[in-house]
Design a protein that fits this description.
10 helices, alpha/beta, globular, 6-stranded parallel sheet, single chain
Length: 340
C-alpha cells in the first residue's frame, strides 16, 4: 500500500512509499482510511520539532472503515465506520491509565507518532480505543475532524469552567480556535474571537459559525472586550500559540478570571506571572484527550449542534502531500484532508 513515511531525520526523509498492509493483532482492527487531516503535530514531526519514532507513517486525524478484526475484538465488526483515540498503547496500570488519561502515561504510544498512522491506505488500531461514528455520519469523511474536536472538548468542556452568560475570548481563529468557539457557545457564553489582519477570512468564517464579535486588531482587544465585560473577559482560551496573543489574553481577562492554554508555542515564552498573581487568575490547559473526552465529543457530534464541514478547505489526494503540506504551512487554508 502507499503510505507517507518519516524514515529518518528532517523533512527530506518524508517519502510516499510502498509498505505492506498492516495486519491486526488479537485486540486490533484493520481500517481502510477514508481521509486523514493534516495537523500541526505532523508538520513538527517532519521538521524534528516533536518527539517521535522512525520509521513511522504520519497522520492521526482520520476516519475509515473496518476491514478486518482480531480474534478478541467484540465491540466492532467489519464494515463499521470508525474514529480512534490517538494514544493507542500504554502501560494500563499507572494512575493515568486507570482513569483513561492515556496521554499522560509515560509508556504511551500514539498513531502517527510512535505507531503507524493514517496517511496511508490502511492502518491498525486497538479496538478498545476505537469508536463507531454516529449512524447518520456513515459514508462521510468529515469525521476525520473528530480528533482535533476531542482536543477542544478536553480544553473547553473538561478543563475550563465556562457558564451561560460568561464573556469568553478565543484567541486565534484557526481550526482549533473555531472549534473551541463553537463549544464555548454551546456552554451559553458570549464569545469574542480575536486574530490579526492576516486572519480576515478566518474571522469572517468565525462570524458565520456563530461568534458574537470578532477582532482583528490585537492592540484594541482589551478595549473591545470592555464594551461587553467592563471588568474584563471571564475566560480566555488561547489557541494561537503566539507569545503576543498570550500577553493580550492576560491583559483582557478580568481579575479572578481564567485562562485556558490550548495553542502550543514550540519554544519557551515569557509569561508576566505578576499579572497572573495580582489578578488571581485560574490557569489551566488542554492537551490531547482522554477516553471520557472521546465519548463526550462523539455525543456532541451525534447531536448535530456543530458546524464541521465549513472548517474543511480542501480535500487532496495523498499523492499531492507535498503541495498540501506547503499550503498548510502558509496558514491560508483551514483543515486540509488527504485522501489515500
Amino acid at each position: 500500500m502507499k503510505a507517507l513515511v518519516k524514515t529518518g531525520k528532517g523533512r527530506e526523509s518524508v517519502k510516499l512509499i510502498d509498505i505492506p498492509i498492516p495486519e491486526p493483532k488479537e485486540d486490533e482492527v484493520q481500517i481502510k482510511v477514508m481521509a486523514c487531516g493534516i495537523c500541526g503535530t505532523d508538520e513538527h514531526i517532519m521538521n524534528d520539532a516533536y518527539q517521535h519514532t522512525v520509521p513511522v507513517v504520519l497522520g492521526h486525524e482520520f476516519t475509515g472503515v473496518v476491514t478486518k478484526i482480531g480474534r478478541d475484538v467484540k465491540n466492532l465488526k467489519v464494515g463499521d465506520q470508525v474514529v480512534a483515540l490517538s494514544a493507542q498503547r500504554s502501560c494500563g496500570t499507572c494512575k493515568y491509565c486507570r482513569i483513561g488519561d492515556f496521554v499522560h502515561c509515560t509508556q504511551k504510544q500514539s498513531i502517527g507518532i510512535d505507531l503507524g498512522g493514517a496517511m496511508a491506505e490502511y492502518l491498525v488500531t486497538t479496538s478498545a480505543r476505537t469508536f463507531k461514528v454516529p449512524d447518520h455520519y456513515v459514508g462521510r469523511d468529515i469525521l476525520s475532524i473528530t480528533e482535533p474536536l476531542a482536543c477542544c472538548t478536553r480544553a473547553v468542556l473538561e478543563k475550563s469552567t465556562i457558564h451561560a452568560g460568561d464573556v469568553a475570548v478565543v484567541a486565534g481563529p484557526g481550526v482549533i480556535g473555531l472549534l473551541c468557539m463553537q463549544l464555548a457557545k454551546l456552554c451559553g457564553a458570549f464569545v469574542i474571537v480575536s486574530g490579526t489582519p492576516a486572519d480576515k477570512a478566518r474571522l469572517e468564517l468565525a462570524k458565520e459559525l456563530g461568534a458574537d464579535v470578532v477582532n482583528e486588531d490585537p492592540a484594541k482587544l482589551a478595549e473591545l472586550v470592555n464594551q461587553y465585560a467592563p471588568y474584563g473577559a471571564d475566560h480566555v482560551i488561547e489557541c494561537s500559540g503566539a507569545a503576543p496573543s498570550l500577553r493580550s489574553a492576560l491583559e483582557c481577562v478580568r481579575k479572578e478570571g481564567s485562562l485556558t492554554q490550548v495553542g502550543m508555542y514550540g519554544k519557551n515564552v515569557e509569561i508576566p506571572m505578576d499579572t497572573v498573581v495580582r489578578k488571581e487568575l485560574k490557569v489551566t490547559a488542554g492537551f490531547s484527550q482522554a477516553m471520557s473526552t472521546w465519548e463526550l465529543a462523539l455525543k456532541i457530534i451525534g447531536q448535530d449542534v456543530l458546524k464541521l464541514e465549513e472548517l474543511v478547505s480542501k480535500r487532496m489526494p495523498l499523492t499531492d502531500w507535498e503541495e498540501a503540506f506547503d499550503l498548510f504551512a502558509k496558514k491560508t487554508e483551514n483543515k486540509i484532508f488527504l485522501i489515500p
